[in-house]
Task: inverse folding
DNA sequence: AGTTCATTTCCATATTCTTGGAAATATGAA
DNA sequence: TTCATATTTCCAAGAATATGGAAATGAACT
């Protein structure tokens, strides 16, 4: 079965697996709505009505997959989506799963969907 | 946990789950390379070096997710990717996971990636 | 009828994922 | 230091997935 350990495919499988779960997909979508400043786990538990342990588990999964970034700010941790990474995933799917090898299918097929967050803020202690 | 059983999200989760597996992703990519005529399970077992039972299991999963279509032709069954469905998945991700709600992020964000196999190809600029 | 090939289902096993309470850790404030 | 809040890790039980041999099904041909 294991024949071509393609690194890009491996990354895609991990990212797809991270999104292939109802709670995590909802969580990621929520984060996308707050892509600029991010959200704290506390805010997410309120929004999604999840036990803290469950939320933390899924959040960690998204981070492990490289789809979510975190930054500590005092007592809080802000999580935000890594849109560049998400974009890369969509690009991979478009490239490898949307068209036959070597073929182009029009202007809409460009892999670049949207770019990383425009501006960043930092405020560490 | 289960709070908003969004049908579109549900479909996306199933499709993502179908692709979030090394063997199945390789399988789907193989099918995309033969999107026009399709492939028989026999040909796939040879290409991917999988036991028939294992291949059948994964194939069924892809069909269940709506990503693969089959047609019987005499003694053979030909499987081919449902590119429209794949396109819808990419569209969903682009719409819901690539940008903040209501925001546009440039010309590249158009949800339509590629449509079912084109008869004519365009020259990329 | 019976034979052969293509493909799937049956089944048991092994592995991985999901859940969430309880305990632990980290940070800031009094 | 002590307290309170934010967040994570620990753990264990249940649920879902993955694997593949062996048996069953389907479809053509003799």
Result:
């Amino acid at each position: 079965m294991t024949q071509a350990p393609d690194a890009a495919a491996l990354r895609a499988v991990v990212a797809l697996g991270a999104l292939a779960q109802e709670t995590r997909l909802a969580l990621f979508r929520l984060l996308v709505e707050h892509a600029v400043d991010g959200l704290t786990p506390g805010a997410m538990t309120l929004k999604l009505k999840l036990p803290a342990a469950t939320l933390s588990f899924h959040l960690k999964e998204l981070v492990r997959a490289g789809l979510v970034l975190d930054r500590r700010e005092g007592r809080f941790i802000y999580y935000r989506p890594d849109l560049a990474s998400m974009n890369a995933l969509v690009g991979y799917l478009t490239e490898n799963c949307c068209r036959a090898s070597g073929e182009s299918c029009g202007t809409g097929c460009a892999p670049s969907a949207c770019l990383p967050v425009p501006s960043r803020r930092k405020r560490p202690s």
